[in-house]
Amino acid sequence: MMPDRDITALVLAGGRGTRMGGVDKGLQTFRGQSLALHAARRIQPQVAGVMLNANRHLHDYRALGWPVWPDAQPDHPGPLSGFAAGLAQCPTPWLLALPCDTPLFPSDLAVRLAEAAAQADAPIAMACAPDAEDGGRLRTHAVFCLMRVTLLADLQAFIDAGGRRVQQWSARHGCALAVFDRPGDDPQAFANANTLAELRALEALALG
Ligand SMILES: Nc1nc2c(ncn2[C@@H]2O[C@H](COP(=O)(O)OP(=O)(O)OP(=O)(O)O)[C@@H](O)[C@H]2O)c(=O)[nH]1
Ligand SMILES: [Mg+2]
């Protein structure tokens, strides 16, 4: 698999942002640009194309210049609903979903996930990294998820049956893990901003 030919990225910005006070997370600023724009620009050189998944302020998201797809389900059932919206529109054999709120994600994210999927001959690959707050134990970051577009019908059935958890769905298929613990991997790469205070802290870190 060649990431810059076979993978389309989907920046997920469709959540409620509850812990941020209900604001539209993807439109909050990080280093002077919106989180969604930052993520789209960071992933763009790694893949064949970029799409955005959002459920509010669609006009603002469309102004960023990439296709924007809202969830099919109206009630914010979680990131799997964003995956389904992206799979339904994906022009390449693989979709790479990533959240908008983790701005320091690896600049080799796509190639490392592609390697993991290819090595295991798996239809899904997820990122995983040591968690400093948990004694360095590996933690899976399930919304950083590379998946084959042929999984759409199965995913839709899982959601329709009430399934909500990403790892519960992926476990049905065989899921490879790309472990970001090599020398040179940024230990903060998967730090995410759930609150505005966390977002400002991440910004300071990035500038420091
Ligand atoms: N499409 C879609 N994406 C979602 C949904 N819920 C969460 N996400 C995305 O999944 C990623 C991780 O979710 P969270 O960190 O929980 O973000 P959130 O749900 O907006 O924030 P909270 O309401 O505080 O949980 C983010 O990129 C969200 O935009 C949803 O219902 N639909
Ligand atoms: Mg949430």
TrEMBL record:
**Record's subcellular location:** Cytoplasm
**In the record, what terms sit under GO molecular function?**
GTP binding; metal ion binding; molybdenum cofactor guanylyltransferase activity
Reactions accelerated catalytically: Mo-molybdopterin + GTP + H(+) = Mo-molybdopterin guanine dinucleotide + diphosphate
Q: Which residues make up the binding site for Mg(2+)?
A: 101
InterPro entries on file: MobA-like_NTP_Trfase, Molybde_CF_guanTrfase, Nucleotide-diphossugar_trans
Sequence ranges assigned to domain MobA-like NTP transferase in this UniProt record: 9-168
| Predominant subcellular localization, coarse grouping | cytoplasm
The biological processes this protein is annotated with in GO are: bis(molybdopterin guanine dinucleotide)molybdenum biosynthetic process
Broad EC category: transferase
Q: Which Pfam families match?
A: NTP_transf_3
**Which cofactors are reported in the record for this sequence?**
Mg(2+)
Pull one GO CC term from this UniProt entry.
cytoplasm
Q: Which domain of life is it from?
A: Bacteria
Residues reported to bind GTP: 12-14, 25, 53, 71, 101
The yes or no answer to whether the keyword Repeat is present is: no
Assigned EC number: 2.7.7.77
State the similarity comment: Belongs to the MobA family.
- PANTHER family in the record, alphabetically? MOLYBDENUM COFACTOR GUANYLYLTRANSFERASE
Q: What is known of its domains?
A: The N-terminal domain determines nucleotide recognition and specific binding, while the C-terminal domain determines the specific binding to the target protein.
For this protein, the record's NCBIfam families field holds:
molyb_mobA
Subunit info here reads: Monomer.
Role played: Transfers a GMP moiety from GTP to Mo-molybdopterin (Mo-MPT) cofactor (Moco or molybdenum cofactor) to form Mo-molybdopterin guanine dinucleotide (Mo-MGD) cofactor.
> What protein is this chain from?
Molybdenum cofactor guanylyltransferase
